[in-house]
Amino acid sequence: MPASDPRPALVWLRDDLRLADNPALTGAVEGGRPVVLAYVLDEGRQTRPLGGAARWWLGRALADLSRAVAARGGTLVLRRGDPAAIIPALAEAVDAESIHWNRRYDAPQIAQDAALKEALKAAGRTVKSHNGTLLHEPWTVKNQSGGPFKVYTPFARAAQQQPVRAPLPEPSTLRFAPAPASEALADWHLTPSAPDWAGGLRATWQPGEDGARATLTRFLKEGLAGYAENRDRPDLENVSRLSPYLRFGNISPHQVLAATRHAEAAGTAGAKDAAKFVAELYWREFSYHLLYQFPTLASANFNPRFDGFGWASNAAHERAWQRGRTGYPIVDAGMRQLWQTGWMHNRVRMIVASFLIKDALVDWRRGEDWFWDTLVDACPANNPASWQWVAGSGADAAPYFRIFNPITQGEKFDPDGAYVRRYIPELARLPAEAIHKPWAAKPDVLRRAGVTLGLTYPHPILDHATARERALARYEAIRG
Ligand code: FAD
Predict the structure, then answer these.
(1) In the predicted model, what is the mean pLDDT of the chain?
(2) Is the pTM of this model over 0.85?
(3) Residue from 57, 216, 219, 280 to probe ligand 1 pocket by mutation (most atoms less than 8 Å from CB)
(4) Which are the catalytic amino acids?
């Protein structure tokens, strides 16, 4: 930076709420330029509004980041409204020499960024976008004919052959320019008050960069060994729970990948466990790859054949599913875990999604929407891609005849019923052999466990075997 040019760089933070390994921030401070950091709560209608649980996470993560910035002598400038108006106004107010951000991959956000870039450039400012969210930009991973991949395995193989940059340290030369006034985070009402439904979320999570680091450290120490074998067990603690941190960029995939490789090299992680965990990070990459090539991922069937699928509209079934009152314990435990903590184990996500789509025949988009509202990790790529995967309508989807049996899935992946007992206390005293199918238990077994079906816990809302046949018939009808 020339000594005569003290103009600051403006960093517009979005899904990258962290100071370490933040390429936009590092790019902005290059040469010692002072920075202004801003976050805009987008209340325009071009982009999908965040759901309730994600808003809670965002509020906590912004509070955490504001504290971290204040501890370094700066201010995180918070503004609410349309970024198309706010960012140029902020750039003008501080006379920013350059504006930096990390890219996003949802079509409306891409359009928003492209338009802003033009407007800022026309006003004579430099705009630089960076990659802080993905290991590989979606357009850089191509198949042999130069097109995008539609199947995970060759995608992951090709992507993993590409280099991944090392994580960047937090800039040591962070200097802050005088910042314009910030709105008060409390005025945004991101955390619910009447009613305050976030008690379970507060008890479960520590949003922000420190929480992310602690979660990663604990996972590498205690969860990764055995990940390959036990990642499907919701009763065990072998998964990382990093998803909301990755979603809001409290940690980057580069940091997670590098730490995993480091643990592997140090011998604290086995090669098989590390490879399986990295493969999951690449499922996230694949979802973004799909979102980028198919912008309507959350609203349209990837496979248009599904446009003619005969979805049922059964409000009572849908409501029972949302509340964890279907009468199938593994489904209900998952839905209650989601409601209480804003998160659900991956295996159980697949089971509950299969139940809604294939047993209750509810359109996958209604389930995606419920998850969007209730997950702290609700992700524009992973959520719709996974729902389409379960529905069979997606790219590289589960075959249509794969209909999860909620009883055998429960028995296999929660063999002692510990997970069900944790989230459905009214079934806690049932023995393991009855816990995944209480309706089949002998009356005295139920009596001893204090369970009265239809009173303390629901009868199954549908018969899985019959529902399965019905679903197969509907799927056959669209196979052509
Ligand atoms: P780990 O097993 O520790 O994996 C590490 C990271 O890899 C995760 O944090 C995540 O970023 C990524 N990952 C793991 N599994 C998958 C997967 N199957 N697909 C894509 N990425 C994966 N994930 C979200 O982040 N947001 C969502 O909104 C979301 N919705 C889903 C909806 C359904 C119906 C299903 C079946 C899955 C969904 N997933 C979603 C994927 C997966 O369930 C979660 O990423 C995972 O459970 C998060 O827990 P974890 O961080 O402990 O995962």
Answers:
(1) 95
(2) yes
(3) 280
(4) 280, 283, 311, 346, 364, 387
For residue 367, the ligand 1 atom closest to its alpha carbon is 34
CATH of 304-479, one of 1.10.3720.10, 3.40.50.10090, 3.30.465.10, 1.10.579.10: 1.10.579.10
Our answer on whether the CB atom of 237 is closer than 6 Å to any ligand 1 atom is: no
Q: How big is the CA angle at 181 (ends 176 and 185), to the nearest 5 degrees?
A: 100
Ligand 1 within 6 A of CB of 236: no
d(CA 312, CA 479): 18
Residue pLDDT, tens place only, 92-115: 999 999 999 999 999 999 999 999
Asked if residue 99 lies in contact with residue 12, where contact means CB atoms within 8 angstroms, the answer is yes
* CB of 346 closer than 6 angstroms to any ligand 1 atom: yes
DSSP labels, 14-36: SS---STT-HHHHHHHGGG--EE
Q: What is the pLDDT of residues 277-305, one digit of tens each?
A: 999 999 999 999 999 999 999 999 999 99
CATH topology of domain 134-164+208-293: 1.25.40
